[in-house]
Amino acid sequence: MPEIISAGLLMYFKNKDELKVFLVHPGGPFFKKKDLGYWGIPKGLPNDFEDLLDAAKREFFEETGKEAHGKFIPLGTVIQKGGKKIHCWAFRGESDEQFDVKCNTFEIEWPPGSGKKQSFPEIDRGEFFIIDEARKKINPAQEEFINRLLEHLNK
């Protein structure tokens, strides 16, 4: 079975009082009522021969509608329960102001067996969370990216 690789970005915002990270919630009917452990970094599959950081920036824009820029901190990789290998970089956002995500859509047969196709957003929402809350929301494997970011910022 071929290795599945994904690349993404962990946006953070730090002021003198607290650190927050930006996470997204997957869209579509399967995730509608799922919360804790289902959020993650904006990420996606790289195109053939695409640099992984470039793919992460592209995916961030496609899933949030926001351009990522600044210094990118490599946070390494993790392997999720299903075997997907996620490459991640962090960058500092300009603010922690909430914004509406603007993302691509996907189409599936819904309800199953109905023969009807429906479109759903890849991401249905994105939010900034303080670290303690982010640890509860994020996919368990991706929590390591938060740990690595904290380690980097505390150097």
Give the arrangement of secondary structure elements:
Blueprint: E1 5-14, E2 19-26, E3 43-44, H1 52-64, E4 73-79, E5 85-92, E6 105-109, E7 117-121, E8 123-130, H2 131-137, H3 143-153
Parallel strand pairs: 1-5
Antiparallel strand pairs: 1-2, 1-3, 2-8, 4-5, 6-7
* Rg from Cα: 16 Å
* CATH homolog superfamily: Nucleoside Triphosphate Pyrophosphohydrolase
User: Whole-number average pLDDT?
Assistant: 93
Give the assembly state of these chains. Answer: single chain
Characterise the protein shown here.
By secondary structure, this protein is an alpha+beta fold. It has a single domain, classed as Nucleoside Triphosphate Pyrophosphohydrolase, CATH 3.90.79.10. Helices cover 20% and strands 34% of the residues. The chain contains 3 helices and 8 strands; from the N terminus they run βββαβββββαα. It has helices spanning 52-64, 131-137, 143-153; strands at 5-14, 19-26, 43-44, 73-79, 85-92, 105-109, 117-121, 123-130. The strands form 2 sheets. Strands 1, 2, 3, 4, 5 and 8 form a 6-stranded mixed sheet that branches. A hairpin with a 4-residue loop joins strand 1 (5-14) and strand 2 (19-26). The radius of gyration is 16 Å and the shape is globular.
What is the compact description of this entry?
With 155 residues, the protein is an alpha+beta fold. It has three helices and eight strands.
Descriptive tags:
155 residues; alpha+beta; Nucleoside Triphosphate Pyrophosphohydrolase; six-stranded mixed sheet; two-stranded antiparallel ribbon; globular
